[in-house]
Amino acid sequence: IAAAMDIWAQGPAALPPPREPRTPVLPVEGERNVLITSALPYVNNVPHLGNIIGCVLSADTFARYCRLRGWNTLFVGGTDEYGTATEARALQEGLSPRQLCDRYHNLHRDIYTWFGIAFDHFGRTTTPQQTRIAQDIFQRLLERGFLLQDTLEQLRCERCGRYLADRFVEGTCPCCGYPEARGDQCDKCGKLINAVELKNPQCKLCHGTPVVSPTQHLFLDLPKLEGRLEAWLERTWAAGEWTANARHITRSWLRDGLRPRCITRDLSWGTPVPLDGFRDKVFYVWFDAPIGYLSITATYTEHWERWWKNPQQ
């Protein structure tokens, strides 16, 4: 405290010279290199103060602090644009998903600019870089035996002539009775559910009653990773870097046992699945969206792997 008071009394003259900005910002040997991301806001609506305060502002504050310390800092963000929520909103507004994403991406960017959020790069997930990296990760999982193929009982609306993925169907949660549960999870109790488990399911497009129909999908074989994951978590928790809430939620998933997780959807708006027999499907948004942090960095610099595959720096 005494040292801080002394520097404060000296004023700006005591500060180190400001770091000369480089373009692009890349890791530098022998320096402290900091990559900062903030949670990608979903693109299908106008961002509000909760979005900014919840993730963007804290990341921006930390980025400013790092730059004041003279650390080599890259701060990236962007909009999450694939998935059923976008497709549903586009239908509602009479636009194509691409038109909707273009409109709201520009709106998000302008609002964050107005607030003075100091992104080094603000990108999006609907890019060639996203497709290339997501498909590459998929191929690596396939080659290493971490994917399963199985038949999934799925709700299909005969009136609309389509399978109802996630947000195209609502019903009563079979676990807690919440009447507006989605086809992938319940926002009230947090349980992951399959759409066919919903009670009183209803198509969100025409409000008709869907029927159960079989369809082939690909699954991430999470049980195969469970032992290695538990060992890694124990080491990480011992370091004390997780909040109590994060540890509690993770333990609850492991306590119930990991299950294979479906990573494909019967949609047109998404990253295409590069595998024969599944080329009419796209990746589930929660497989696809986290890869957006990598692909947005890749749209900023072709040397993006120096940030994401470079633990020594």
From TrEMBL:
Write down the Pfam families for this protein, in alphabetical order. tRNA-synt_1g
Domain Methionyl/Leucyl tRNA synthetase, residue spans: 34-311
- Asked if the Swiss-Prot or TrEMBL record annotates the protein with the keyword Acyltransferase, the reply is no
One GO cellular component from the entry? cytosol
This protein's UniProt keywords: Aminoacyl-tRNA synthetase, ATP-binding, Ligase, Nucleotide-binding, Protein biosynthesis
Domain of life of the organism encoding this protein: Eukaryota
Sample GO molecular function, one term: ATP binding
**Reaction it catalyzes:** tRNA(Met) + L-methionine + ATP = L-methionyl-tRNA(Met) + AMP + diphosphate
Which is a GO BP term held by this UniProt record?
methionyl-tRNA aminoacylation
Query: Does the record bear Transcription regulation in its keywords?
Result: no
Q: What family is it from? A: Belongs to the class-I aminoacyl-tRNA synthetase family.
The name of this protein is Methionine--tRNA ligase, cytoplasmic
Query: What organism does the record attribute this protein to?
Result: Erpornis zantholeuca
